[in-house]
Design goal:
Length: 402
């Protein structure tokens, strides 16, 4: 039996031995079941159950390459970044992320709370399920984790130490390539365009010089603005949910960057759900998505303003005009980042099931064009309110129906 003193990539049998060796509640278990449950692009995830007590945990380990492609050779230290991000987020937004039981830097893995009683939000949305508390929960998470890791609130030296802790160059490079670069140029072989939309993509994305300028601005903003600790990959596949609870998971892309990146990712992935709902004529579902888009922007701004007044420690940040400037810049960033996410999930390497499983193919092509129309509008003319996002979706739908 291994002693786990040197890194190796575990299989299910190894994971069983691991939890027996490392977790007190499993040390004397007679029967343990381990199942690989991860379907993400990067890591290996296992659910381990003590069949005598029904105690269960999740074990997550980082491999040396991304599962999405062997082209991405990665340091296994990203597991440490993810786990420490979850620990900090748990402190700032208790109840909205899983609890961490163990961080093992040697094995590049962590053991955490099992959330299997909940559903991955993207899966639920593809089945047109709705969640009445999501906007409330996700804006609590966003406000508390973003504002309270910024220079508005933190001692500046402490914040700079955190920036150093969460330096994440390899995963940032993936985002810089897959989000900010490749979707807008036709000389990258990782792009995947659905047959039938080639000319549309060529015109709207590849040949659009005005768009390229704005995307370049957003890319350099992403690379150079250490505004706050962002999740870095906050989509509906990184959220567990039911009618009462919301839990944010998988912050392996966490780093200090612009707040709007996280908010924009949430908005974009809800818009994928909206496009799917329209494709299948799910009126009640699309109305819920519209209301949620509106509520997220409204609640975020309202809660952010309140939290600023409660938590701001920086003297110059207490200036009312500066506060307004800061908030408006976040809202502008949010729109641009949402546009990037919409574009890259349609034409780039990492797609979303909301769109790829739409049938027949003609309906998928229409949904993709809708998303790309909204993407370019968001990047070129950044919106400030939830209502403007809804109007853009509806206008794109009308354009597609002509």
């Amino acid at each position: 039996m291994p002693t786990f003193e040197q890194y190796f990539l575990m299989n299910t049998d190894d994971v069983i031995h691991y939890v027996q060796f490392k977790i007190d509640s499993f040390k004397h278990a007679q029967t343990i079941t381990c199942t690989e449950i991860g379907d993400g692009n990067l890591n290996y995830v296992y659910r381990v159950i003590n069949n005598q007590t029904n105690d269960s945990v999740i074990v997550k380990q980082a491999g040396t390459t991304a599962r999405i492609s062997d082209e991405f050779v990665l340091s296994t230290s990203r597991n440490k970044i993810e786990t420490e991000a979850l620990m900090l987020q748990h402190k700032l937004a208790p109840g909205l992320v899983p609890e961490i039981y163990l961080l093992d830097e040697t094995m590049s893995c962590c053991v955490m709370e099992d959330l299997s009683k909940l559903t991955i939000m993207r899966t639920a949305l593809t089945n047109f399920e709705t969640f009445p508390h999501f906007a409330e929960h996700i804006t609590d998470f966003l406000v508390n984790t973003l504002l309270r890791t910024s220079d508005v609130v933190l001692n500046h030296k402490d914040k700079k130490e955190l920036v150093r802790t969460f330096i994440n160059p390899e995963l940032c490079e993936i985002s810089e390539d897959l989000v900010f670069t490749e979707p807008f140029h036709n000389n990258f072989n990782r792009n995947e365009i659905t047959p039938g939309n080639e000319q549309f993509v060529q015109t709207l994305l590849y040949s659009n010089e005005e768009l390229h300028v704005e995307v370049a601005k957003l890319k350099f903003h992403f690379m150079n603005n250490t505004q706050s600790l962002v999740h870095g990959d906050l989509h509906t596949g990184s959220i567990f949910i039911d009618q009462n609870d919301t839990k944010v998971i998988d912050p392996e892309f966490a780093f200090f960057g612009p707040m709007g990146y996280d908010i924009g990712n949430i908005m974009a992935n809800l818009m994928f759900a909206w496009a799917r709902g329209r494709a299948y004529e799910q009126k009640e579902f699309t109305e819920w998505v519209e209301n949620t888009l509106f509520d997220i922007m409204d609640l975020f701004e309202t809660k952010f303003r309140t939290a600023w007044d409660e938590h701001a420690t920086e003297v110059v940040a207490k200036n009312a005009d500066f506060k307004e400037h800061y908030i408006q810049s976040i809202l502008k960033d949010t729109a641009g980042m949402a546009g990037l996410e919409l574009a890259r999930r349609v034409v780039g390497l990492a797609k979303v099931k909301d769109i790829t499983t739409i049938e027949p193919i003609e309906s998928r092509l229409k949904a993709e064009r809708l998303c790309l129309r909204v993407a370019t509008e968001l990047i070129l003319n950044p919106f400030q309110t939830g209502g403007q996002y809804i109007t853009a979706l509806q206008n794109a739908q009308q354009e597609e129906n002509k």
